[in-house]
Amino acid sequence: MARKHSDGPAKTDIDMTPMIDMTFQLITFFVFTLNFSQAVQDDRVQLPLSQLAKPAEGAAEDPITLQLMNDGKVIYTGEPIALEDVGGYLENEKRVMISAGKEPSSATVIVRADGRSRTGDVQQMIRICQEKGFERFVLRAQYDESK
Amino acid sequence: MTLPAGDAASGKAVPKREPLSDKIAIDMTPMIDVVFQLITFFMLTLKTVITEGDFDIRMPLGASAGAAPEDAPTVLRLAMKSDGEGRLASIAMNGSPVVGQELLSELATGSEALRQAEAAAATSRTDATKRRVDAAAKQKNAAVRQFIDSVRGKVNGVIGTNTGPGGAADNTEAEIDADPALQYEHVVYVITAVSGKETADGQTVPLIKKIKFAPPRKQK
């Protein structure tokens, strides 16, 4: 018996279920790992490790992040500047705070210093901040997960 | 289309009913398009954030060296000396040495081994250099932990183990006096040692909460 030839191309049904399952799982993963935090992290600074460096429960009030690199330069708003020039930028921060009706003493200066940088540079940076009226400081470290 | 039922009496032929299919073909293309666009969006906005934490330090303006605040009558002065290369040469608490030279040299050896391994890994990324970095990091980590435990043990020896509210730890302030040339990571190790301890279940038992830097000395 002769087989009947179809008129058009053969229609193949592809089962899309596994692919859709997988893509929805991927979306779920990305939705759960989505991070809205405005954490300032920079690869140029290698933070010292500490077992006690766990994330704070509340966000710091009026945070100003200063990142000290290994070579003594400071990253401020993404750009490396000389340590001596930090004072000028902090003066601007101070002016902005005062114009917003806040005192510089209420701001928190987050010190992200490289573990290999000189302690003297960290202290000098803190001293410059103090001279501009900033009083609250936190030293940031990377959480040491090794057991 | 549903055809009218045939009438046998009228003599008209009854048309054959087409079998009804249960399968309804839904066009999946728009949904798959949107889903893939969502995946692309999430992949591009994904950022890996390293876990970081903060140590509060008290740096009131105009505080003089060694002046204890009213609420912390006991001051632990931790003097850290550098060997000129940034390594820790000695550490003393209120004048008495905290750790032995053997541990300090272990710490220095571990740091140096890791620095060299990282420098080698920066030039050639092979499995061997990666293994060397891992081994050096492990060696340094062990020395750092031993160092932190030693410093914490000395601190506990002075203020006792009562870390509860109103205990000696609450009335003690740690003042860190470090050489300007000392690598900053050593200061963080000491701050970790005096701040508290992580228990096996991941909880932190706090120790001294008031930590400050001594006024900076003139840099050479």
Structural overview:
The complex is a heterodimer of chains A (147) and B (220). Chain A is 30% helix and 19% strand. With 147 residues, chain A is α/β, with parallel strands linked by helices. Chain A has a domain at 49-143: Nucleotidyltransferase, domain 5 (2-Layer Sandwich). Chain A has a 6-stranded mixed sheet with strand order 1-6-5-2-3-4, covered by helices on one side. Chain B is α/β, with parallel strands linked by helices. Chain B has a domain at 74-213. Chain B has a 5-stranded mixed sheet with strand order 4-3-2-5-8. Chain B has a two-stranded antiparallel sheet with strand order 6-7. Chain B is elongated and about 120 Å long. Classes of the chains: A alpha/beta (147), B alpha/beta (220). Chains A and B meet through helix 1, strand 1, helix 3 and strand 6 of A and helix 1, strand 1, helix 3 and helix 4 of B.
Low confidence ranges of chain B: none
Q: Report the principal-axis shape of chain B.
A: elongated
Number of helices of chain A: 3
Low-confidence stretches of chain A: none
The CATH topology name of the domain at 49-143 in chain A reads: Nucleotidyltransferase, domain 5
Determine the mean pLDDT of chain A. Answer: 85
CA-based shape of chain A: elongated
Q: Please state the structural category of chain A.
A: alpha/beta
In the CATH hierarchy, what is the class of the domain at 49-143 in chain A? Alpha Beta
Distance between the termini of chain A: 76 Å
Largest sheet of chain A: 6 strands, mixed
Order of adjacent strands in the largest pleated sheet of chain A: 1-6-5-2-3-4
Rg of chain B (C-alpha, Å) = 34 Å
CATH architecture verdict of the domain at 49-143 in chain A: 2-Layer Sandwich
User: What would you call the quaternary organization?
Assistant: heterodimer
Major sheet characteristics of chain B: 5 strands, mixed
Strand residues, percent of chain A: 15-25%
Order of helices and strands of chain B: HEEEEHHEHEEE
User: How are the strands of the largest sheet of chain B arranged?
Assistant: 4-3-2-5-8
